[in-house]
Amino acid sequence: MTTTMTTATTAAWSSSPRTPPLPVSLPPPTTRHPIGTVDLHLVDRTRPDPLLPSKPFRELMVTLWYPARHRATYPTTPWLGPAAAADWDSHSAPGLTIPPGTVDWRGIRTHARTGAPAAPGAGPVVLFLPGDGGIRALGTTLVEDLAAHGYLVVTIDSTYEADQVEFPGGRVERAIPLPDELTPEIIAALLAKHSRARLADAAFILTALESLTAGHNPDATGRPLPPGLPTALDLSRTAALGQSLGGSVAAQLAHDDPRISAAINLDGEFIGPVATTGARTPFLLLASATHTFDNVPGWNTFWTATTTWKRALRLRDAAHGSYTDLQTILPQLTPHLDIPAAEELIGTIPPAPSLAAQRTATKRFLDLHLKNHPTRFFDDPTRYHPELELLPGPTRA
Fold this sequence. Notes:
single chain, alpha/beta, 397 residues, 11-stranded mixed β-sheet, Rossmann fold, two-stranded antiparallel ribbon, disordered N terminus, globular
């Protein structure tokens, strides 16, 4: 994000230098079932890094969120690691017009426990891909609810594209700076490049998960895995879920990789071949308030070409960033800070009904296509959540 902080905001905060940083909390999942997490450091030595060619291999960080057996003696998983939180505070938050030092980013806690033993039984797997430049933590409120309901969710950072990625030992790799001039042609080329890198990353991660279920530890440094984790994944039931560019990559991955059985796009335009080929698997599109099939690149052609099970829903009064954790974080800060871009980022929909509608829609879709649980939710979503409505189809071929 490129918005600079306002002078008024900076002055107001700096006038009270001893004011403690503002606390932020995340809403709990909709069930109290324990959740565990583990970070994996993955290294693909079969290819040079596609975004930093001078590096002879691709290095990634992912987090696995899973149903846990118990959690009392395990530490609560932070929203960001300490080094990433510091980098977010100094480099990313100012783009939201939040001055450094004003928010306790390091203190944000999830509802999961790091390293907790996995619950018995194998659950469906979901790959989560954030938006372009986004970090994997921005999907926490959505993915930890899926984990609490029996899914194993893998959140993925795209190194050198994501704002910051923290590796073991506290090393942080930041995004490669964008060109000074961002013409539509340059932006399109960057998105295509990022999409290709992410597709290769996802394929590599799926193979690493296969290795994990075979009893191997794919972590590059061999850090111990939580007890029971290798038997917690049912890779025969795998979906891809993404926000913005991540939604396009999810669609392309589901089209290209037979290991993916369903896909969800959270308000992203379609980049690359999938924009004209359509989906191969069942597909769910969730849109923000002003987006339609006729004003978002790729939506019209993608939808027309898709002949599988498909539904498109619109979240009233939502904006593009409503499908990220900013939906719950920014409203906690706006009573204390002047954040001019807040409404542009997350719309005017209140956080609680927005998140509830998103959680229900994604879970019902995945339950239907990965667990074979029938539902009538998609016939009339407004009946369940007044904020949701069926998105009218394309008006032109």
